[in-house]
Amino acid sequence: MAEGDFAATSSPKSLDDLAKPHTNGCARTFKELKRLLTADLFRYSGKTNTKTFLRHFLFTPGYKYTVWMRTTGYLRVQPWAKVLLLYPLAKWILLGCRYKYGIVIPEYTVIGPGLFINRFGGIYVNGDAVIGSNVNFTHGIMLGQSNRGKYMGSPIVGDRVFLSAGAKVIGRITLGDGSVVGANAVVTKDVPENAVVGGIPAKVLSMQGSADYVNRMAPL
User: Fold this and answer.
1) Helix (H) or strand (E) holding 22
2) Cα Rg, the chain, nearest whole Å
3) pLDDT at res. 110
4) What angle do CA 154, 188, 23 make, to 5 degrees?
5) Which of 73, 121, 122, 152 is the most buried (most CB within 10 A)?
C-alpha cells in the first residue's frame, strides 16, 4: 500500500472518534468512481466491457454491492446529489443490498481499487478499516473494531491480501501486503508481508503469501 494513498491510517484518539462516520473513502469525482469500479470489475473476469459490467452487476452479489457502495460514497460528498435526493436513494438501495446479501461495508470505508468479494453472507467491515488494492473477501469474514488497549481501532489491510472464509481480524492490526488469513482464523496481532496465518489465535504457518490465491489483479 503506497504511502499517502489512504488518509485514515492513524489510530483514533477516543471511542467518540471511532463512532463518527467520515468521507475518507468516498470517490470525489466521477472519473475516480469509474476507475475504481472498472478495477473492481476486472477482478471478476479480466474484462471491463459493458456486457461484462451488466452481467456481474445483475447476477454477482459481491460486485453489485460494490457498485452501490462506491456510488453511494461518491454521492455522499456531492452537494447536488443531496439536493436532488440521489444520495438518500442510493443509501436506501445499499441498505437493501446489505440485508439481501449479508454484506456490511459502509460507503465511506477506505478501499483501494480491485476489491473482489467471492461469495457473500456474513461479511462485516467496520467503516474505520483501511483496505488496500486487489484484496479478496470471502464469506463470513469480519474486520472489526476494538474499543481499548494497544490495538484500539479497526484493521489496516495491505495490498493483495486474501481473507479466507470465516476469518476474523479485530482491532488496529496490520495485515501486510500479500498475506493470507486462513479459514476461521482469529488474528490478534500484526501479520508480516507474504505471511500465511491460521488458527485461534492466528500464527504464521508459512511465508508463501497470496500469489496463488489473488489473481486477475487490476492494473493500478
Assistant:
1) none
2) 17
3) 98
4) 10
5) 73
Does residue 147 sit in helix, strand or coil? coil
- Give the residue among 84, 166, 163, 165 at the shortest CA–CA distance from 129: 163
Q: What is the rounded CA–CA span in Å between residue 39 and residue 133?
A: 9
- The residue type found at 176 is G
**Contact between 77 and 97 (Cβ < 8 Å):** no
User: Which pLDDT tens digit goes with each residue over 125-167?
Assistant: 999 999 999 999 999 999 999 998 999 999 999 999 999 999 9
pLDDT for 6 equals 43
Which residues are bridge partners to 131 per DSSP? 111, 157
In 3D space, the residue among 187, 19, 1, 13 whose CA is nearest the CA of residue 106 turns out to be: 19
Q: Are 117 and 137 in contact, with CB atoms under 8 Å apart?
A: yes
For residues 167 and 198, what is the distance between their CA atoms, to the nearest angstrom? 9
Helices (H), 46-173: 50-59, 61-76, 79-83, 86-101
Q: How many helices and strands, by DSSP H and E, does the chain display?
A: 6, 15
Q: What are 28's strand-pairing partners?
A: none
